[in-house]
Structure of Phytanoyl-CoA dioxygenase PhyH:
Amino acid sequence: MMTTDDLYEFDLNGYIIYRNFLSTRDIHRALTILKNCHGAKGSGKFSFFELDSFFMELMAHPRTIGILKIMLGDWLRFDHAFGLKMTKKEPIHENLHAGPLQNQRSFWYQWAPGQIMHNGLLKVSYTLNDVHPGDGGFICIPGSHKANIAHRPNHDSHLVINPSMQAGDLLIFTEALVHGSRQWTANCDRTALIYSYAPGCLAWKNYDLVKHNLQFATTELQRDLLRPPFVGNYDEHTLQHTGEWPTDRRSKIRG
Ligand SMILES: O=C(O)CCC(=O)C(=O)O
């Protein structure tokens, strides 16, 4: 699900774009549902799970989960999600944020001996409109997920890029990458769906604020991805070994 070329690209840059990931039908479906959505002032954020079952299906998209299993391990979990709707008329707070070991060390990127990739929080962003050079939207400093100097350049630094994309492209980036948003300037609206995933031991967002999404889950995989963070699954009365990996549940996460 992730080729050596993909791994090399992600390792080098801290992000990767899978082109033409969503079908025209899916893009159309999502945009139709989101037609009347408005992003919050200053950030463009909105919530979407309550709007249609399509967004839960996208959370458990088989190809995405296959890629994420390589990046986060089989025991990955969904952490949180939001949509972004930006127009050229509504100003947003332009910014760069995140980076290696930021947010209580929950943003990490590391390779272990044996060529296994380890990630903390990851973002998966479905782009629902074209992004041409200079349009604004997602920005990042490629390679900054491996930076050794605690330094945050300005969001208009020459080190910052604003990648071009087409509707239906999928952008995946590690939160260890210094990234952010730039003012949207194109005539069309910017609409993106951002899903965040974590290794099964980690919650970035307070689970009390996320668990209500379980009411929208309709499949076992969706419910499994929405579980709280944990690894051990035993109590003191059972004879399982301490720290045993919960293989019974792991086998249910299928890409
Ligand atoms: O896509 C964007 O504009 C930025 C997204 C972002 O900063 C984030 O998800 O942390």
Remarks:
- The first helix runs from residue 4 to 13.
